[in-house]
Write a structure and sequence with these properties.
By secondary structure, the protein is of the alpha/beta class. It has 10 helices and 13 strands. Strand 12 and strand 13 form a beta hairpin.
Amino acid sequence: MRLLMRAGGIFLLSLALILSVAGCRLAQRTSAPPPSAALTATTTATYGDHTGSMEIGGLTRTWLLHVPTKYNSLSPAPLLLALHGRLGDGKGMASLTHLSQVSDQNGFIVVYPDGYQRSWADGRGATAADQAGVDDVAFLSALVATLTGTYAIDARRVYVTGISNGGFMAQRLGCDLSAKIAAIAVDAATFPVNLADRCAPSHPMPVLLFNGTDDPLVPYQGGVVAGDRGEVYSAPQTAARWAALAGCAPTTASATVPTLVNDGTTVSDVTYSGCRDSVLVRFYTIDGGGHTWPGGMQYLPASIVGKTTRNLDASQTLWQFFAQVTARNGA
Protein backbone atom coordinates (compact mmCIF):
# COMPACT_ATOMS: atom_id res chain seq x y z
CA MET A 1 0.00 0.00 0.00
CA ARG A 2 2.82 2.42 0.85
CA LEU A 3 4.39 1.70 -2.56
CA LEU A 4 1.07 2.34 -4.28
CA MET A 5 0.68 5.63 -2.42
CA ARG A 6 4.21 6.70 -3.42
CA ALA A 7 3.57 5.74 -7.05
CA GLY A 8 0.31 7.66 -6.98
CA GLY A 9 2.06 10.68 -5.52
CA ILE A 10 4.66 10.68 -8.29
CA PHE A 11 1.89 10.37 -10.88
CA LEU A 12 0.03 13.31 -9.40
CA LEU A 13 3.28 15.31 -9.31
CA SER A 14 3.85 14.66 -13.00
CA LEU A 15 0.23 15.42 -13.92
CA ALA A 16 0.11 18.66 -11.93
CA LEU A 17 3.37 19.93 -13.37
CA ILE A 18 2.27 19.10 -16.90
CA LEU A 19 -0.97 21.02 -16.38
CA SER A 20 0.87 23.96 -14.84
CA VAL A 21 3.02 24.45 -17.91
CA ALA A 22 0.48 23.45 -20.59
CA GLY A 23 0.98 26.76 -22.38
CA CYS A 24 4.64 26.07 -23.10
CA ARG A 25 5.57 25.42 -26.73
CA LEU A 26 7.45 22.15 -27.04
CA ALA A 27 9.94 21.27 -29.75
CA GLN A 28 8.28 18.79 -32.09
CA ARG A 29 11.45 17.03 -33.15
CA THR A 30 12.13 13.77 -31.27
CA SER A 31 15.25 12.52 -33.03
CA ALA A 32 18.70 13.34 -31.75
CA PRO A 33 19.89 16.72 -33.06
CA PRO A 34 22.87 16.92 -35.41
CA PRO A 35 26.16 17.83 -33.72
CA SER A 36 26.19 21.38 -35.08
CA ALA A 37 23.93 23.91 -36.75
CA ALA A 38 23.78 27.57 -37.58
CA LEU A 39 22.93 29.76 -34.59
CA THR A 40 20.40 32.56 -34.73
CA ALA A 41 18.76 34.37 -31.84
CA THR A 42 16.14 36.99 -31.08
CA THR A 43 16.31 39.22 -28.03
CA THR A 44 15.05 42.60 -26.88
CA ALA A 45 17.38 44.88 -24.94
CA THR A 46 14.88 46.65 -22.66
CA TYR A 47 13.88 46.36 -19.02
CA GLY A 48 11.43 43.77 -17.77
CA ASP A 49 10.49 40.32 -19.08
CA HIS A 50 11.20 39.20 -22.65
CA THR A 51 11.20 35.93 -24.54
CA GLY A 52 14.02 34.81 -26.80
CA SER A 53 14.82 31.92 -29.09
CA MET A 54 17.67 30.41 -31.06
CA GLU A 55 18.16 27.60 -33.54
CA ILE A 56 20.82 25.16 -32.37
CA GLY A 57 21.37 21.44 -32.82
CA GLY A 58 18.42 21.26 -35.19
CA LEU A 59 16.03 22.53 -32.51
CA THR A 60 14.37 25.82 -31.65
CA ARG A 61 15.35 26.61 -28.07
CA THR A 62 13.53 29.24 -26.04
CA TRP A 63 13.86 31.20 -22.84
CA LEU A 64 12.36 33.90 -20.64
CA LEU A 65 14.69 36.78 -19.79
CA HIS A 66 14.36 39.33 -17.01
CA VAL A 67 16.35 42.55 -17.29
CA PRO A 68 16.39 44.44 -13.97
CA THR A 69 15.33 48.04 -13.58
CA LYS A 70 18.87 48.82 -12.39
CA TYR A 71 20.41 47.62 -15.67
CA ASN A 72 22.84 50.11 -17.20
CA SER A 73 24.53 49.28 -20.47
CA LEU A 74 27.59 51.23 -19.32
CA SER A 75 28.06 48.96 -16.29
CA PRO A 76 28.35 45.22 -17.04
CA ALA A 77 25.88 43.18 -14.98
CA PRO A 78 26.11 39.64 -13.62
CA LEU A 79 24.10 36.92 -15.38
CA LEU A 80 22.22 34.10 -13.64
CA LEU A 81 20.89 31.03 -15.45
CA ALA A 82 17.93 29.54 -13.53
CA LEU A 83 17.08 25.98 -14.62
CA HIS A 84 13.66 24.47 -13.99
CA GLY A 85 12.95 20.92 -12.86
CA ARG A 86 11.73 18.06 -15.05
CA LEU A 87 8.24 18.75 -16.44
CA GLY A 88 8.65 22.46 -15.70
CA ASP A 89 9.52 25.43 -17.87
CA GLY A 90 11.25 28.79 -17.58
CA LYS A 91 8.08 30.72 -16.77
CA GLY A 92 7.28 28.29 -13.96
CA MET A 93 10.81 28.63 -12.59
CA ALA A 94 10.36 32.39 -12.40
CA SER A 95 7.11 31.96 -10.46
CA LEU A 96 8.57 29.34 -8.14
CA THR A 97 11.66 31.27 -7.12
CA HIS A 98 10.84 35.03 -7.27
CA LEU A 99 14.36 35.46 -8.64
CA SER A 100 13.20 38.32 -10.88
CA GLN A 101 12.38 40.38 -7.79
CA VAL A 102 15.82 39.59 -6.36
CA SER A 103 17.25 40.61 -9.74
CA ASP A 104 15.56 44.01 -9.52
CA GLN A 105 16.87 44.50 -5.99
CA ASN A 106 20.46 43.61 -6.88
CA GLY A 107 20.89 44.50 -10.54
CA PHE A 108 21.71 41.15 -12.14
CA ILE A 109 20.15 39.73 -15.31
CA VAL A 110 18.35 36.40 -14.92
CA VAL A 111 17.41 34.03 -17.72
CA TYR A 112 15.03 31.09 -17.40
CA PRO A 113 15.74 28.68 -20.29
CA ASP A 114 13.25 26.04 -21.40
CA GLY A 115 14.46 22.45 -21.47
CA TYR A 116 13.84 20.02 -24.33
CA GLN A 117 10.42 18.44 -23.74
CA ARG A 118 10.54 20.04 -20.28
CA SER A 119 13.76 18.29 -19.31
CA TRP A 120 17.53 18.74 -19.27
CA ALA A 121 20.22 16.39 -20.54
CA ASP A 122 22.02 16.30 -17.20
CA GLY A 123 23.96 13.13 -18.00
CA ARG A 124 22.00 10.60 -15.94
CA GLY A 125 20.39 9.20 -19.09
CA ALA A 126 16.97 9.42 -17.42
CA THR A 127 15.29 12.37 -19.16
CA ALA A 128 13.74 12.94 -22.57
CA ALA A 129 16.58 15.33 -23.40
CA ASP A 130 19.27 12.78 -22.50
CA GLN A 131 17.50 10.00 -24.37
CA ALA A 132 17.14 12.17 -27.49
CA GLY A 133 20.84 13.01 -27.44
CA VAL A 134 20.27 16.72 -26.89
CA ASP A 135 23.44 18.70 -26.12
CA ASP A 136 22.25 21.05 -23.39
CA VAL A 137 25.79 22.03 -22.47
CA ALA A 138 26.16 23.44 -25.99
CA PHE A 139 22.76 25.16 -25.84
CA LEU A 140 23.41 26.85 -22.50
CA SER A 141 26.92 27.83 -23.55
CA ALA A 142 25.48 29.40 -26.72
CA LEU A 143 22.80 31.14 -24.64
CA VAL A 144 25.47 32.73 -22.45
CA ALA A 145 27.35 33.85 -25.56
CA THR A 146 24.19 35.25 -27.16
CA LEU A 147 23.15 37.24 -24.10
CA THR A 148 26.70 38.47 -23.55
CA GLY A 149 26.66 39.75 -27.12
CA THR A 150 23.35 41.55 -26.62
CA TYR A 151 23.68 43.00 -23.12
CA ALA A 152 26.46 44.46 -21.05
CA ILE A 153 27.28 41.31 -19.05
CA ASP A 154 30.35 40.69 -16.93
CA ALA A 155 31.72 37.38 -18.25
CA ARG A 156 33.48 36.85 -14.89
CA ARG A 157 30.11 36.80 -13.11
CA VAL A 158 28.02 34.16 -14.86
CA TYR A 159 26.23 31.92 -12.37
CA VAL A 160 23.89 28.94 -12.55
CA THR A 161 21.17 27.67 -10.26
CA GLY A 162 18.54 24.95 -10.65
CA ILE A 163 16.06 22.71 -8.90
CA SER A 164 15.79 18.92 -9.27
CA ASN A 165 16.63 18.03 -12.91
CA GLY A 166 17.76 21.66 -13.24
CA GLY A 167 19.95 21.20 -10.16
CA PHE A 168 21.54 18.13 -11.70
CA MET A 169 22.10 20.15 -14.89
CA ALA A 170 23.65 23.01 -12.91
CA GLN A 171 26.19 20.55 -11.54
CA ARG A 172 26.92 19.25 -15.02
CA LEU A 173 27.64 22.82 -16.13
CA GLY A 174 29.87 23.22 -13.08
CA CYS A 175 31.86 20.27 -14.39
CA ASP A 176 31.61 20.62 -18.18
CA LEU A 177 31.25 24.38 -18.71
CA SER A 178 33.36 25.59 -15.82
CA ALA A 179 35.40 27.94 -18.02
CA LYS A 180 32.26 30.09 -18.41
CA ILE A 181 30.67 29.53 -14.99
CA ALA A 182 31.82 31.39 -11.87
CA ALA A 183 29.69 29.49 -9.30
CA ILE A 184 26.63 27.26 -8.97
CA ALA A 185 23.75 26.91 -6.52
CA VAL A 186 21.87 23.61 -6.44
CA ASP A 187 18.47 22.83 -4.91
CA ALA A 188 16.79 19.45 -4.42
CA ALA A 189 19.53 17.60 -6.31
CA THR A 190 22.66 15.72 -5.31
CA PHE A 191 25.74 14.59 -7.24
CA PRO A 192 24.99 11.82 -9.78
CA VAL A 193 27.58 9.10 -9.23
CA ASN A 194 28.59 8.98 -12.91
CA LEU A 195 29.15 12.76 -13.00
CA ALA A 196 30.92 12.98 -9.66
CA ASP A 197 33.41 10.31 -10.71
CA ARG A 198 34.54 12.22 -13.81
CA CYS A 199 34.03 15.87 -12.81
CA ALA A 200 37.14 18.03 -13.25
CA PRO A 201 36.33 21.78 -13.24
CA SER A 202 38.89 24.09 -14.82
CA HIS A 203 38.94 26.17 -11.61
CA PRO A 204 37.90 25.61 -7.99
CA MET A 205 34.11 25.84 -8.24
CA PRO A 206 32.19 27.70 -5.52
CA VAL A 207 29.09 25.65 -4.75
CA LEU A 208 25.97 26.29 -2.66
CA LEU A 209 23.64 23.37 -1.89
CA PHE A 210 20.10 23.14 -0.48
CA ASN A 211 18.69 19.72 0.40
CA GLY A 212 15.64 18.62 2.38
CA THR A 213 15.86 15.57 4.63
CA ASP A 214 12.30 14.55 3.64
CA ASP A 215 12.70 14.90 -0.13
CA PRO A 216 10.50 12.11 -1.58
CA LEU A 217 12.16 12.14 -5.01
CA VAL A 218 15.90 12.77 -4.54
CA PRO A 219 16.97 10.81 -1.44
CA TYR A 220 18.88 12.89 1.09
CA GLN A 221 20.79 9.77 2.14
CA GLY A 222 21.71 8.88 -1.43
CA GLY A 223 20.73 5.91 -3.55
CA VAL A 224 18.42 5.85 -6.56
CA VAL A 225 16.27 8.81 -7.58
CA ALA A 226 12.52 8.04 -7.60
CA GLY A 227 11.42 6.44 -10.85
CA ASP A 228 14.79 4.70 -11.26
CA ARG A 229 16.33 7.95 -12.52
CA GLY A 230 19.94 7.36 -11.65
CA GLU A 231 22.17 6.65 -8.66
CA VAL A 232 23.22 9.67 -6.62
CA TYR A 233 25.45 10.57 -3.70
CA SER A 234 23.90 11.55 -0.40
CA ALA A 235 23.57 15.27 0.27
CA PRO A 236 26.52 15.33 2.73
CA GLN A 237 28.62 13.28 0.28
CA THR A 238 27.74 15.73 -2.48
CA ALA A 239 29.00 18.66 -0.43
CA ALA A 240 32.15 16.77 0.50
CA ARG A 241 32.84 15.84 -3.12
CA TRP A 242 32.49 19.43 -4.34
CA ALA A 243 34.69 20.55 -1.46
CA ALA A 244 37.34 18.01 -2.44
CA LEU A 245 37.23 19.21 -6.06
CA ALA A 246 37.82 22.74 -4.75
CA GLY A 247 40.75 21.59 -2.63
CA CYS A 248 39.04 22.48 0.65
CA ALA A 249 40.26 21.32 4.02
CA PRO A 250 38.26 18.43 5.52
CA THR A 251 37.31 20.57 8.52
CA THR A 252 33.99 22.41 8.45
CA ALA A 253 32.11 25.06 10.40
CA SER A 254 28.49 24.36 11.31
CA ALA A 255 25.70 26.74 12.28
CA THR A 256 21.96 26.72 12.86
CA VAL A 257 19.78 29.19 11.01
CA PRO A 258 17.32 30.98 13.36
CA THR A 259 13.84 29.46 13.26
CA LEU A 260 11.50 32.30 12.30
CA VAL A 261 8.39 30.25 11.49
CA ASN A 262 7.12 27.11 13.22
CA ASP A 263 6.40 25.27 9.99
CA GLY A 264 7.90 21.92 10.93
CA THR A 265 11.30 22.66 9.42
CA THR A 266 14.65 23.75 10.80
CA VAL A 267 17.72 24.78 8.83
CA SER A 268 21.41 24.23 9.44
CA ASP A 269 24.42 24.90 7.27
CA VAL A 270 27.95 23.61 6.88
CA THR A 271 30.75 25.70 5.36
CA TYR A 272 34.02 24.25 4.08
CA SER A 273 37.15 26.34 4.56
CA GLY A 274 40.72 26.32 3.32
CA CYS A 275 39.66 25.90 -0.31
CA ARG A 276 41.92 26.82 -3.22
CA ASP A 277 41.68 30.44 -4.32
CA SER A 278 39.61 31.13 -1.20
CA VAL A 279 36.46 29.78 -2.84
CA LEU A 280 33.41 28.82 -0.80
CA VAL A 281 31.49 25.53 -0.56
CA ARG A 282 28.37 25.76 1.58
CA PHE A 283 25.66 23.21 2.31
CA TYR A 284 22.22 23.92 3.78
CA THR A 285 20.19 21.06 5.24
CA ILE A 286 16.47 21.68 5.63
CA ASP A 287 15.39 19.25 8.33
CA GLY A 288 11.79 18.34 7.48
CA GLY A 289 12.05 19.99 4.06
CA GLY A 290 10.97 18.34 0.83
CA HIS A 291 11.51 18.52 -2.92
CA THR A 292 10.89 22.26 -2.88
CA TRP A 293 12.51 25.68 -3.25
CA PRO A 294 13.22 27.14 0.24
CA GLY A 295 11.15 30.28 0.65
CA GLY A 296 9.47 29.72 -2.72
CA MET A 297 6.01 28.72 -3.83
CA GLN A 298 4.52 25.50 -2.43
CA TYR A 299 3.79 24.30 -5.96
CA LEU A 300 2.13 21.04 -4.87
CA PRO A 301 0.73 19.81 -1.55
CA ALA A 302 3.29 18.83 1.07
CA SER A 303 1.79 15.33 1.05
CA ILE A 304 3.22 14.91 -2.47
CA VAL A 305 6.49 16.89 -2.61
CA GLY A 306 7.17 17.67 1.05
CA LYS A 307 7.28 20.96 2.92
CA THR A 308 8.62 24.28 1.72
CA THR A 309 10.54 25.88 4.57
CA ARG A 310 9.82 29.50 5.47
CA ASN A 311 12.97 29.68 7.57
CA LEU A 312 15.25 30.25 4.59
CA ASP A 313 14.89 32.14 1.31
CA ALA A 314 16.99 30.27 -1.24
CA SER A 315 16.78 33.06 -3.82
CA GLN A 316 18.10 35.74 -1.47
CA THR A 317 20.65 33.34 0.02
CA LEU A 318 22.10 32.22 -3.30
CA TRP A 319 22.53 35.80 -4.46
CA GLN A 320 24.31 36.70 -1.21
CA PHE A 321 26.55 33.69 -1.82
CA PHE A 322 27.33 34.72 -5.40
CA ALA A 323 28.03 38.29 -4.29
CA GLN A 324 30.43 36.96 -1.67
CA VAL A 325 32.16 34.85 -4.32
CA THR A 326 32.53 37.95 -6.49
CA ALA A 327 33.99 39.96 -3.62
CA ARG A 328 36.54 37.26 -2.85
CA ASN A 329 37.57 37.10 -6.48
CA GLY A 330 37.93 40.86 -6.67
CA ALA A 331 35.57 41.03 -9.63
